């Protein structure tokens, strides 16, 4: 199986955790796209009454096109389960997210969810975080100064661009990727980044996930994190 087939495998596996009547957080990314397709199938075939809260405009559009009811986070009083992808997951189930520039909404949805499941192909499982660049969502105003500050701190920051244009998040902010290499102490780094004015949110997801479904060549493996 290639990487896309593994993503499809875990996408399909994840929707087995969905029960009728649930309010679901729907993540963002290519793996989640497979999951939303599979969820749409279940909703159609089994006439499930579920509500989705999307972590990006693109996921909302896809879900609605498949007949899945979408509500805003503030329109629901709780979320039963959120299913999302990840860019890296370490030995302690700490993660990096934001490769799809959606980590701000993803984190807000995740922390309001009773349970979080991440779906990844096996290439995302690492011993130590940091090979994947760490995304930061930053306010455009004064962002060059934020970049310079991060550079002086040794984080090797880079604006995420699409040609000559900044990549814009759904909240119309910019993304700065940190190419800093191995992250020895994710908690300490998260605290440092939380203290930088202009940084809205970083892509470290610490102590968030409950279960990880890993797509392996011999089938999906479910790992219990907490
Ligand atoms: O955090 C994310 C988007 O902001 C995605 O979950 C992450 O980038 C994984 O994406 P993919 O499933 O396409 O590999």
How is this fold's topology laid out?
Blueprint lengths: L2 H12 L8 E4 L3 H17 L4 E4 L2 H9 L3 E2 L8 E6 L3 E2 L5 E2 L6 H9 L1 E9 L12 E5 L4 H10 L4 E3 L1 E2 L2 E2 L7 E5 L7 H9 L4 E4 L1 E2 L5 E6 L2 E6 L2
Parallel strand pairs: 1-2, 1-4, 2-3, 4-7, 7-15
Antiparallel strand pairs: 5-6, 6-14, 8-12, 8-13, 9-12, 10-11, 15-16
Ribulose-5-phosphate (5RP) binds next to helix 2 and helix 4.
Question: Could you walk me through the main structural features you see in this protein, from its secondary elements to its overall organization?
Answer:
With 226 residues, the protein is an alpha/beta fold. The chain folds into 2 domains: 3-125 and 206-224, Rossmann fold, CATH 3.40.50; 134-201, ACT domain (Alpha-Beta Plaits, 2-Layer Sandwich), CATH 3.30.70. Helices cover 29% and strands 28% of the residues. It contains 6 helices and 16 strands. The chain has helices at residues 3-14, 30-46, 57-65, 103-111, 143-152, 186-194; strands spanning 23-26, 51-54, 69-70, 79-84, 88-89, 95-96, 113-121, 134-138, 157-159, 161-162, 165-166, 174-178, 199-202, 204-205, 211-216, 219-224. The strands form 4 sheets. It has a 7-stranded mixed sheet with strand order 3-2-1-4-7-15-16. α1 crosses α2 (30-46). The mean pLDDT is 97. The structure holds ribulose-5-phosphate. Ribulose-5-phosphate binds next to α2 and α4.
């Amino acid at each position: 199986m290639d990487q896309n087939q593994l993503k499809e495998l875990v996408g399909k596996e994840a929707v087995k955790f969905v029960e009728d009547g649930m309010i679901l957080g729907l993540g963002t990314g290519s793996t989640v796209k497979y999951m939303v397709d599979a969820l749409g199938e279940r909703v159609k075939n089994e006439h499930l009454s579920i509500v989705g809260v999307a972590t990006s405009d693109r996921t909302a559009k896809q879900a609605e096109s498949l007949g899945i009811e979408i509500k805003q986070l503030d329109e629901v009083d709780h979320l039963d389960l959120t299913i999302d992808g990840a860019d890296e997951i370490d030995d302690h189930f700490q993660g990096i997210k934001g490769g799809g520039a959606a980590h701000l909404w993803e984190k807000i949805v995740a922390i309001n969810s009773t349970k979080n499941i991440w779906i990844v192909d096996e290439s995302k499982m690492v011993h130590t975080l940091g090979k994947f660049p760490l995304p930061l969502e930053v306010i455009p105003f004064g962002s060059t100064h934020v970049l310079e500050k991060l550079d002086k701190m040794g984080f090797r920051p880079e604006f995420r661009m699409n040609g000559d244009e900044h990549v814009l998040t759904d909240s119309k902010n910019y993304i700065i990727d940190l190419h800093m290499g191995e992250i020895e102490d994710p908690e300490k780094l998260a605290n440092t980044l939380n203290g930088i004015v202009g940084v809205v949110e970083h892509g470290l997801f610490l102590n968030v996930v409950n279960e990880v479904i890993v797509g392996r060549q011999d089938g999906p493996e479910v790992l219990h994190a907490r």
